[in-house]
Write a structure and sequence with these properties.
The complex is a heterodimer of chains A (about 280) and B (about 260). Chain A is an alpha/beta fold. Chain A has 8 helices and 10 strands. Chain B is about 85% helix and about 0% strand.
């Protein structure tokens, strides 16, 4: 399904994940292979329950038991790797640290001097558009601002690959589009290789160079779609005809999977319900 | 900000404290009224005016400040001990799940056990000394600190732990940079509860073995049937408690300025 160019910075090869549950084994990810080129923005999209987040955990090194290999710049990884920076779906800032201290967290781990890490943290804070909020605590910020703090914290570790799991899922559509702009701007500025896990078609088309569409359980690669929209992009692209065509094309792929997922979930609920 | 808005803001700042003081004053007034009209027996509860009047006598004749200091030092010692051993105990129990599964119920049961009744045993071990009082306060206060520490650490949001893992933190970094600060609000709840238990037990044992600080003073005054003096001494016990809570709140705000 995926081509495997030699210059791929991230290569997931025949990933299989199987969970044992009370109702028997569940195959969450089934023989998924793909690669990401340097500077590329790849999104993985699929219906709820297709194993997207499991894939995120495999690539991020947070899941121990799986089959297959994940290579970063030719090196097989077996756990969290410094080349991969993760942004999580849930709010993940440290509430006891100020914005600056949150962003400086990975720099602190490297033993960088205080003045230097504050300086560097301020650079990334400015990059995500939070200048002026350096001394605030996450509890004093909105959900979107907190996600930007998490993004800045991950960027501060200067990862080769930015791995994001539905980072804007909890935000409203308008904030999501605007934050999408911010991510695009940063990605273009840093030439940051990015892998985004999402279930939002608009978000995926707005930002990606390619989109990997997954099937409902077991999660397989259904198709990889090249997004041939001009760059640099902003959220204004959502009004274009080409954008609409891509959204329609991906929805056509996803609709079948999402419907199957919904039917299976309904069947599961019916089976679980006490017989009256 | 306009002058009116500033006035509103300053009133909002002081309103809780003012309402608190007002409630206590109202309670005193009602009690005064009930005692003076004979609805409450003055030989059981003296009128608040008499209690306030006895403060000078208790301070000058009964050396209440040195006794206050002694109880304060005993509480402080027990507080430091229960913070160190209670938090460490909670951390160890959380780290070794078998230990937690084996002992958590016992620790919880210990919280409700009347440890104060074991004072003869402690008298044998430590003699009639401040250490008997401190150790009894410490032991009685230990369970809430252990339990709340376990709750705080195990209740750390999984995503924060995963952030630590994604940055390749060592187990020690994971603990000091994520688990411990995340658990701090719970740990402080445990320490607050622990200090309440410690103070009750310390004053109780001082009373029982007739040794040391405010507890002994209350015992002496009660035996002399000096009811107003007894209640005045109890007010100093409350003062110890208030002081501890104020200091603890400052420490908590310093460690975790915003939740």
């Amino acid at each position: 399904m995926s081509d495997t160019p030699n210059n791929a910075i991230l290569k997931a090869d025949h990933i299989n994940v199987r969970f044992e549950t009370a109702e028997g084994p569940v195959i969450a990810v089934d023989d998924v292979s793909f690669d990401v080129r340097p500077g590329e923005f790849l999104s993985v999209i699929g219906p709820s329950g297709c194993g997207k987040s499991t894939l995120f955990n495999v690539i991020g090194g947070l899941l121990g038991s799986y089959q297959g290999t994940v290579n970063v710049a030719g090196e097989t990884i077996n756990g969290p790797h410094q080349s991969i920076g993760m942004v999580f779906q849930e709010e993940s800032t440290f509430p006891w640290r100020t914005v600056t201290d949150n962003v400086a967290f990975p720099l602190e781990l490297t033993g960088m001097g205080k003045a230097q890490r504050i300086e560097k943290a301020k650079h990334f804070i400015g990059m995500v558009g939070l200048k002026g909020f350096e001394n605030r605590y996450p509890g004093e910020l909105s959900g979107g601002m907190r996600q930007r703090v998490s993004l800045a914290r991950t960027l501060a570790s200067e990862p080769k690959i930015l791995l994001m799991d539905e980072p804007f899922a909890a935000l409203d559509e308008q904030t999501r589009l605007l934050l999408g702009d911010k991510v695009l701007q940063i990605q273009q500025e840093l030439k940051q290789t990015t892998l985004l896990i999402t279930h939002n078609i608009t978000e995926a088309v707005q930002m990606s160079d390619r989109i990997l569409v997954m099937t409902y359980r077991p999660g397989k690669v259904k198709r990889i779609v090249d997004i041939d929209l001009p760059r640099p992009r902003t959220s204004e692209i959502v009004g274009s005809e080409a954008f609409g065509r891509y959204v329609a094309q991906i929805w056509a792929d996803l609709r079948e999977e999402a419907s199957r997922g919904m039917r299976e979930q309904e069947k599961h609920v019916m089976d679980e319900a006490p017989q009256g | 900000m306009s002058a009116q808005a500033q006035k509103r803001a300053s009133f909002a700042d002081y309103a809780p404290a003012a309402t608190g003081v007002g409630t206590v004053l109202a309670f005193f007034l009602i009690m005064e009224l009930l005692v003076q009209t004979g609805m409450v027996n003055r030989f059981i509860v003296p009128p608040p005016s008499e209690i306030i009047g006895s403060f000078g006598r208790v301070i000058v004749e009964e050396h209440v400040f040195s006794r206050f200091l002694q109880t304060l030092i005993e509480c402080l010692t027990a507080g430091v001990m229960l913070t160190v051993f209670g938090v460490a105990g909670g951390v160890v129990m959380n780290r070794y799940k078998l230990l937690q599964q084996a002992c958590e119920t016992w620790v919880a049961a210990m919280a409700s056990a009347p440890i104060v009744l074991m004072y003869p045993l402690f008298l044998v071990i430590f003699g009639r000394s401040a250490w008997t009082i401190i150790m009894m306060g410490f032991l009685a206060a230990l369970p809430p600190v252990i339990l709340k520490t376990i709750e705080g650490i195990s209740g750390t949001r999984k995503v924060l732990v995963n952030v630590g893992r994604s940055f390749n933190l060592t187990p020690s970094q994971q603990f000091w940079k994520i688990l411990f600060p995340a658990a701090l609000p719970n740990i402080f709840v445990g320490i607050r509860l622990g200090l309440i238990f410690a103070l009750i037990n310390i004053v109780g044992v001082e009373f029982l073995i007739n040794y040391g600080g405010l507890g002994q003073l209350i015992n002496d005054l009660a035996e002399r049937y000096d009811l107003a003096g007894t209640y005045a001494a109890i007010c100093f016990v409350i003062l110890v408690s208030v002081l501890f809570f104020m200091v603890l709140e400052k420490i908590e705000r310093w460690l975790r300025p915003v939740d």
